[in-house]
């Protein structure tokens, strides 16, 4: 039997990192089993769906290596409404479901507010279909439903504790539970790998598989993803959109490696490993069922490691979107014609070892491309203390006299200027750095001055000196 898995996101918002994790796990599992990965867009919630969210899902998947054209689909759940209704009808005709006209208030009046779930009032009333009548599944009174779950063993649910749940609403439209099962069935899905949030749905869904006469799939409910307070990552509170990470300058390779570490680790106490190792070693039955902590700090550190491991040409190329701006990335503060690719290439290796996300490239190099540096006033106040004017004067004179404008000579010169004033190099650098780059931290100073060039360096030092008068 060919293994067939599916990733079934709902296009109701930005693409969640937890979804990306499930997608990758499905993807790897299919690959390992020589199986098929199906993408199904569950777009039946017309009020919340938007086509741009679907496009966002496709391009985010593409970004993490699940390329368009390399999987089956996308299928759209809304195209199968007829099948969903037909399945509801079959369940009704087979006596496995019944119509119900109870309102929530009716049920609560009978059961009291404490009791949750439906009390079965209409089970044997034999109501005909009709406007406003929901169709409910008649759950078995006895026995138990055993879910075979590769991550969680065999969670077992007593059938009598499962309420007669709704499978089609009063307007006849099937609900998620049913549509999801019918599609999995008709798409021949053998393994359902999805987030733990859906585990409570699973016994109900498995009962539907049984009632529709098809062997249920093997399940794998992978752990919920939580923040540092152990709260489930939420789009209102946490940064959850994969696109946000992409646009901040996380590398796809770092991101997908990190996502696979949520609840699992490769062998040998390693975390950063080639993707091929993850593809080979990942096992669903090794996934830890406890909530997985999405540690943004660790991801940042991870990303920095990936950035440093790039060949420098690839790093230069990877920075491009932040150097130019794109549809989703803000343009840099300089004009396109102010950008100098040779100057950028000269400082790129210095930047590569210092940034953790690619967007940080901009504040590190903007001094090279702007006519005047963007002065950070707090940095200015910190660096331009007593003695700064005198130091700048001396530095200007000494730099003007330099024969060769290179990092080494610049350094030796400023060192000497500082020493004459009893200042260590670090202290002597501060006013120069702020005058030239506008900031207290950045790329190594003397290499920066070399690339910036004599004229522009001196102009900036003089401008700063004027401001200090
Ligand atoms: N559309 C559901 C969701 O996004 C997926 C359910 C499933 O994977 O079975 O949560």
CATH superfamily of the largest domain: HUPs
What's the mean pLDDT score? 96
The secondary structure category is mainly alpha
Portion in helices = 40-55%
State the assembly state of the protein chains: single chain
Number of domains: 2
What would the keywords be for this entry?
469 residues; elongated; binds glutamic acid; 10% strand; 12 strands; Rossmann fold; Arc Repressor Mutant, subunit A
What does this structure look like?
The protein is mainly α and 469 residues long. It has two domains: 1-309, HUPs (Rossmann fold); 372-467, Arc Repressor Mutant, subunit A (Orthogonal Bundle). Helices cover 45% and strands 10% of the residues. The chain contains 19 helices and twelve strands. It has helices at 17-32, 51-63, 81-93, 104-111, 176-186, 202-211, 242-248, 252-260, 275-281, 296-308, 312-324, 341-352, 361-369, 377-383, 388-400, 407-420, 425-437, 445-452, 454-467, and strands at 4-7, 36-41, 72-76, 97-100, 134-137, 144-146, 156-158, 166-168, 191-195, 218-222, 225-226, 292-293. The protein has a three-stranded parallel beta sheet. Helix 2 (51-63) links the parallel strand 2 (36-41) and strand 3 (72-76). Helix 5 (176-186) crosses helix 6 (202-211) and helix 12 runs antiparallel to helix 13. The longest helix is centred in the N-terminal third of the chain and has 16 residues, at 17-32. The model has no long low-confidence stretch (mean pLDDT 96).
């Amino acid at each position: 039997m060919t293994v067939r898995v599916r990733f079934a996101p709902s296009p109701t918002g930005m693409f969640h990192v937890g979804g990306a994790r499930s997608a990758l796990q499905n993807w790897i599992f299919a690959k390992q089993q020589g199986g098929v990965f199906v993408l199904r867009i569950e777009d039946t919630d017309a009020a919340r769906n938007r086509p741009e969210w679907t496009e966002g899902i496709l391009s985010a998947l593409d970004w993490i290596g699940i390329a368009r054209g390399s999987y089956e689909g996308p299928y759209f759940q809304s195209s199968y409404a007829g099948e969903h209704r037909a399945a509801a009808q079959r369940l009704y005709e087979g006596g496995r479901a019944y119509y119900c006209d109870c309102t929530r208030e009716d049920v609560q009046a009978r059961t009291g507010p404490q009791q949750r779930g439906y009390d079965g009032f209409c089970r044997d009333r034999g109501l005909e279909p009709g406007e406003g009548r929901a169709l409910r599944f008649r759950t078995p009174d006895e026995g138990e439903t055993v879910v075979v779950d590769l991550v969680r063993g065999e969670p077992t649910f007593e059938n009598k504790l499962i309420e007669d749940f709704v499978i089609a609403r009063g307007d006849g439209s099937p609900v998620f539970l049913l549509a999801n099962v019918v599609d999995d069935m008709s798409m021949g899905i053998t393994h359902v790998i999805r987030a733990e949030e859906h585990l409570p749905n699973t016994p109900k869904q498995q009962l539907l598989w049984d009632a529709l006469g098809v062997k249920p799939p093997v399940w794998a409910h992978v752990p919920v993803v939580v923040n540092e307070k152990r709260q489930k990552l939420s789009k209102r509170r946490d940064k959850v959109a994969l696109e946000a990470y992409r646009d901040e300058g996380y590398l796809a390779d770092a991101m997908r490696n990190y996502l696979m570490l949520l609840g699992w680790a490769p062998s040998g106490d390693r975390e950063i490993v080639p993707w091929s190792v993850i593809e080979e070693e990942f096992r669903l039955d090794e996934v830890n069922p406890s909530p997985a902590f999405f540690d943004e700090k660790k991801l940042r550190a991870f990303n920095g490691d990936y950035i440093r491991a790039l060949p420098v040409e690839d790093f230069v190329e990877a920075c491009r979107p932040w150097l130019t701006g794109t549809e989703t990335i803000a343009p840099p503060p300089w004009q396109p014609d102010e950008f100098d690719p040779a100057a950028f290439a000269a400082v790129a290796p210095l930047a590569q070892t210092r940034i953790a996300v690619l967007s940080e490239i901009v504040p590190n190099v903007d001094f090279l491309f702007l006519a005047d540096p963007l002065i950070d006033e707090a940095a200015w106040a910190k660096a331009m203390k007593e003695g700064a004017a005198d130091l700048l004067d001396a530095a200007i004179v000494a730099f003007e006299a330099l024969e060769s404008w290179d990092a080494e000579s610049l350094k030796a010169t400023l060192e000497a200027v500082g020493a004459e004033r009893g200042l260590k190099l670090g202290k002597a650098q501060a006013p120069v750095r702020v005058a030239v780059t506008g900031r207290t931290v950045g790329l190594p100073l003397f290499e920066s001055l070399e690339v910036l060039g004599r004229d522009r360096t001196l102009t900036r030092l003089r401008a700063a000196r004027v401001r200090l008068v």
